């Protein structure tokens, strides 16, 4: 309804096989601080090609409206709409190859923020409308790669990497200023996962038996926010797999094939 689109990636080996409806379905949201890039950006396109091949899954990369023209929650609304489009099974590749009962929401950076908040929305809606809300689509978990979260208070990793050449804290502040609803600060629930109803809805995520994978690196100024998110989810009794490697920088899991391989091996085990 908002002129968005999706790119669908089928692993190469599936092209040579008959329809079997057995591939895990990964719904992917690109990063860019809610302001930049697209599902059509070359490095996100290439990352999804590799994701499909490396994990032997079918990947749906979702285009969503960008801020500041379309502030949050526009991106979340577009992502939810995409899930309803996927569940309609109107695409041949999805209909012939995807296991709709084995779906994961995945994102990089701001895309991981989208995957998280959309997961919370779906969990809340399932609580109201029951298991048929997205049927036959059934979400099994969330895959959050270098998730983009923050708050008004600087965390130690932001202080340590205040002059980071890739994503210094003042750039994060600007991206949040451009993307959050007018009149709120970075302690709004879209930015700070400890605010709002999110921690309460995580109880529903636990009841649904979803699992969550959180990954990042020590060269990312957002590291401590990411560790705190993983800790919050785990404290609510949700099964969490976390991996935070030494070195690196924000976005390295998208752009550097070595780090991408490490992440995708983790994802393959996670969705197996």
Number of strands: 7
Rg measurement, Å: 17 Å
Distance between the termini: 34 Å
With helices defined by DSSP (H or I, 4 residues minimum), what is the helix count? Answer: 11
Report the mean per-residue pLDDT as an integer.
96
In which range does the helix fraction lie?
40-55%
Strand order of the largest sheet: 1-3-2-4-5-6-7
How much of the sequence lies in strands comes to 15-25%
Largest sheet data: 7 strands, mixed
Would you tell me the structural class of the helices and strands? alpha/beta
> Which residues form runs of ≥5 with pLDDT under 50?
none
Principal-axis shape equals globular
Query: How do the SSEs run, as a string of H and E?
Result: EHEHEHHEHEHHHEHEHH
Write the layout of secondary structure elements.
Blueprint: E1 6-9, H1 12-15, E2 23-29, H2 42-55, E3 58-62, H3 74-87, H4 92-97, E4 98-108, H5 110-129, E5 139-145, H6 156-160, H7 169-179, H8 198-207, E6 211-217, H9 223-235, E7 239-245, H10 252-255, H11 257-271
Parallel strand pairs: 2-3, 2-4, 4-5, 5-6, 6-7
Antiparallel strand pairs: 1-3
Helix pairs in contact: 2-11, 3-5, 5-8
Give structural notes:
43% of the residues lie in helices and 18% in strands. It is globular, with a radius of gyration of 17 Å. Strands 1-3-2-4-5-6-7 form a 7-stranded mixed β-sheet, with helices on both faces. The protein has helices at residues 12-15, 42-55, 74-87, 92-97, 110-129, 156-160, 169-179, 198-207, 223-235, 252-255, 257-271; strands at 6-9, 23-29, 58-62, 98-108, 139-145, 211-217, 239-245. It is built from 11 helices and 7 strands. It has 272 residues and is of the alpha/beta class.
């Amino acid at each position: 309804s908002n002129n968005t689109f999706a790119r669908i990636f089928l692993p190469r080996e599936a092209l040579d096989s008959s329809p079997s409806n057995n591939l895990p379905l990964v719904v992917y949201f690109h990063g860019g601080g809610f302001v930049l890039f697209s599902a059509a950006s070359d490095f996100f396109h290439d990352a999804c090609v590799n994701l499909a091949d490396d994990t032997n899954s079918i990947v749906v990369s979702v285009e969503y409206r960008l801020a500041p023209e379309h502030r949050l929650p526009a991106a979340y609304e577009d992502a939810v709409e995409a899930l309803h489009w996927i569940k309609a099974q109107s695409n041949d590749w999805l209909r012939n190859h995807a296991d709709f009962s084995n779906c994961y929401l995945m994102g990089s950076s701001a895309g991981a923020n989208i995957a998280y908040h959309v997961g919370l929305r779906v969990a809340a809606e399932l609580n109201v409308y029951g298991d048929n809300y997205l049927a036959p689509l059934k979400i099994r978990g969330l895959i959050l790669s270098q998730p983009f979260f923050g708050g008004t208070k600087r965390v130690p990793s932001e202080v340590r990497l205040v002059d980071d050449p890739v994503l210094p804290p003042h750039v994060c502040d600007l991206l949040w200023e451009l993307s959050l609803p007018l009149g709120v600060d970075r302690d709004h629930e879209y930015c700070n996962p400890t605010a709002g109803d999110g921690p309460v809805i995580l109880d529903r995520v636990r009841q649904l038996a979803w699992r969550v994978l959180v990954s990042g690196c020590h060269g990312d100024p957002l590291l401590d926010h990411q560790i705190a998110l993983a800790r919050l989810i785990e404290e609510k009794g949700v099964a969490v797999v976390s991996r935070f490697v030494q070195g690196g920088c924000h976005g390295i899991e998208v752009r550097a094939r070595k780090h991408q391989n490490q992440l995708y091996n983790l994802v393959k085990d996670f969705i197996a």
